[in-house]
Every structure is written in C-alpha cells, then in structure tokens.
Amino acid sequence: MSKQELPAAFVRQMESLLGSDTEAFLDSYERPRTHGLRFNGLKLADAPQLKEAVIREFSLTPVPWCSTGYYYGENVRPGKHPYHTAGLYYIQEPSAMSAVELLDPQPGETILDLAAAPGGKSTHISSKMKGEGLLVSNEIHPERAKILAENIERMGVTNAVVTSAAPDELSRRFPQAFDRIMLDAPCSGEGMFRKDSGAIAEWTPQLVELCAARQWDILQEAYAMLKPGGTMAYSTCTFNRSENEDMMERFTAHYADMEIIAMKRLWPHREAGEGHFVALLQKRGEPSGGGQTLEASPSERQRPRRKGRSGNGKPGAGLQDAQSALKAFQAWADEELPDFALPAGTPILFGESLYLLPGGELLQEQQLQGLKVPRAGLHLAHLKKNRIEPAHALAMALSPQQAAKRITLAAEDPQVSAYLRGETLQVDASLKGWVLAAVDGLPLGWGKASGGQLKNHLPKGLRQH
Ligand SMILES: C[S@@+](CC[C@H](N)C(=O)[O-])C[C@H]1O[C@@H](n2cnc3c(N)ncnc32)[C@H](O)[C@@H]1O
C-alpha cells in the first residue's frame, strides 16, 4: 500500500501522537507487511527435530520478543504445509506475539482469554500452560468461535473450554475466578492497515470512539472475573491513545485496586511488525481472598468423577450416562491407545459427543448450562449405537506412538496430501480398525482400515481442496 491511501484524520492523529517520528511512521506504510509463525510447544516435544527443519525450509528468522516466534518472507507459504495442519505452528502477526509473553501464563493456572478468535493468543497461552490448568477461551461471535475451536483442536490442546458468550454473561458465572486474563480487545485496527485495506476503509474518528466505549464495557466484566492478586493483559492492534494508554489510565483511576505493571508499544517504524499495544495490570489483594476458585483438589486431578455423581458431588441426571460413556471410551482406549493416560477432567455429554471437561471441582457442567459451548474441553469420541468413534480432536492431542495402529508418512509423500484431501489410502492388509495417520511424528487424523484400504475420517470441513 501507499501512505497516500491513509485517511487524513488518521495522519493528523498520528502527527499529534508521534511528533517528529511521524514521517518515519508514515514511511513504514511504503514497506511490505511482516509475516510470522509461532511454534507450538505442545507439539515440539514429539518432534523436536522438525523445528530446525522448518526454520531451514522457510528461512525463518527469530522474533526478538517471543522465543517461539519467527519471521518468514512473503514468498513462502508455511500455512499450506502439512506441519501447519498438524499444529506444529500457528501463523501469527509478529507484534501480536508480545501480549502473551507479557501476560506470562503458567502451567496449572486458571486463565481466561476473553476475546479469543481466531486463537492467536489462546494457542500461545495453551502452549505455555503445557496442558496443566484450565483455559477458558471465549469468543462472542459464534462463527468465529467455531474457527477458534478448530484452531485449538489443531494445536492439540487438552485443557481448554471454548465458550461463545458476551462478557457480561461470562462474568455472572465466573466472578473472581481467574488467575490471569487476556483481553485482546476489539479495536479500530490501525495496525491492520498494511495487511487489510478494508481496515482503512472502515476507519473513522467515530469508530475509535465506538471501540473505546466498547472496550470500557468489556473491561468492567474482565475486572469482575479477575481474582484478587491476579494479572490481566490488555492489548490492541491500534495506535491511538484513547483505546490504549488513556483507557488504562481511566480504568486504573476507576478501580483503585488495579495497578499498571507494564505498558509496551511496538511500532511498525521501530520494530519489524505491524504494531501492538499491551498493558499488564495487577489486581491488589491476596490470591486466596474470597471469590470463586476453579482449581481441582489433587485427587480430582487424577481421576474422573465417581460413577453416578454429578460435578458438585450431588446425584445428577445425565451424568450416569457420561460416566458409562467414559467407561466405554476407556475400554476402547485400553485396546487402541495403550500408552494414553486420560488427562484430568469430568466427562460430559453433548448429544452423541463425549468431552472431558478440564478444571476439576469448580468448573462444572452446570456453570456452562445456557451458554454456547462449541468445545467443552477435550473431545474424546462420538458415541454411535454400539461403538466408539474417536474424535478428530483426540487424534490431534495424541503422540502417534500412543496409538496401537498408525501410519507415519513423510511430509513430501503424496499420500499426505491425499489424506488431507479426504481420500482413501492403500495400506498394509494386516491393518484393521482405527489407525492414526501421522506426518513425520505429528498426528493428522484418523482412518479406519480394512482389506488394505484406509477409509478417511478427517472431518469433511477440514479437508483440503
Ligand atoms: C482483536 S480480536 C481477537 C484476536 C485474538 N485474540 C487472537 O489473537 O487471535 C477481538 C475479538 O473480539 C471480539 N468481539 C467483538 N465485540 C466484542 C464484544 N462486545 N465483547 C467481546 N468480544 C468482542 C471480536 O469478534 C474479535 O474476535
């Protein structure tokens, strides 16, 4: 794009914000946008050698503020590679990687990503949580929440629940519940101009005001959900002060127990990236000082709930079914996934789908009732009349060696693209039943083998054409 395309009111706004730096800032619009990818720690453990191979193949160079983040050039397409489908990395704008680095999530914590689709921050958070603790990943728009759920599944995340709720619906159910909150707020998108000319067309000073008003509303709900002692990262991909520093000043002036710990700006004329604002805030108080906790007791972490008991320990309708479903799944897994240890969680049934709800004692099925929940934790299986059909999400959360039957293909093998197109593969005639298809040590999905053919079970919506 050219800087001539920028709205005059935007240029004036940036002049008053940047002074003598304005020229350099505006010149950055004459340069190509940056591209980045971030490796998924959840997958690297299974195939550490692939990181170096990908770095070489795509001539990646490191992003200074994110140890798993790398730049790639505009002529390479890592998003089209089977390793992307296998969840080895997530394509993410480099400066956006700064937000979760500042939030610094830890394994075992209870974390909310309040405006999460398509999942850049959530998949970054889950990579740092290493499967321990609970991530509630929320997106208000149902269609976007579906994409979020798919990305979370692709990355092999086991400890995330995806909800699709307005922030106030969520805060009624989760008061003072989270150790950390990521609020990557909907904003006027001034940092998107190089990437998306639609963002330039939509920008007006009124849009900035509208976004600031909405951010203020969302911040109230985020505040209500943060535990005392908890931390929150607020980020935007826009440059004006109203949605950034001014918003943080207004917020901390309104809530005397909120303190700004750090504020960071990434500028497209100073760093290689499209630009981002991130603030880290802390709520004063003791972490145990009242409110709700979503932590499981140590014994709850180890095993699913007892048969015939509901999430709160009282007899509950329907849970009997979830428990029998889990039992049936476990019998299937004993045969088919001999080295697979079921992660901590409570079984939950949505129609014929069996999920494992993470979060232990205090994240209960009841809390989710009435909410849209595109993904109630790890999707284990579809329950057909007399049989178990393993879910795609389960495949993506496995190490291939956990599957009794598997085929491992090399990335350049034409069978990989055939599998990803949904085609039937020819396999050894001795293979029978559920087979995990993998690429270079990373799972891609299920197939069902019989008579030397592998019937493709990649979900239709994920097939590549
Ligand atoms: C900047 S994007 C989030 C990007 C995401 N965190 C990521 O890293 O991939 C902001 C999100 O907020 C959502 N949103 C819009 N209006 C909202 C509202 N009133 N409350 C909460 N979220 C909203 C948008 O649908 C959008 O997905």
UniProtKB/TrEMBL annotation:
Would I find Transmembrane helix among this entry's keywords? no
Q: What GO biological process terms are annotated to this protein in UniProt?
A: RNA methylation
Query: What single Pfam family name could you report for this chain, choosing any that match?
Result: Methyltr_RsmF_N
Q: Which GO terms describe its molecular function?
A: RNA binding; RNA methyltransferase activity
Catalytic-site annotation from UniProt: C237 (nucleophile)
Annotated ranges, domain SAM-dependent MTase RsmB/NOP-type = 25-322
Q: Which keywords appear in this protein's UniProt record, sorted alphabetically?
A: Cytoplasm, Methyltransferase, RNA-binding, S-adenosyl-L-methionine, Transferase
Protein family (similarity comment): Belongs to the class I-like SAM-binding methyltransferase superfamily. RsmB/NOP family.
Report the protein name in the record. RNA methyltransferase
> Whose protein is this, by species?
Paenibacillus rhizosphaerae
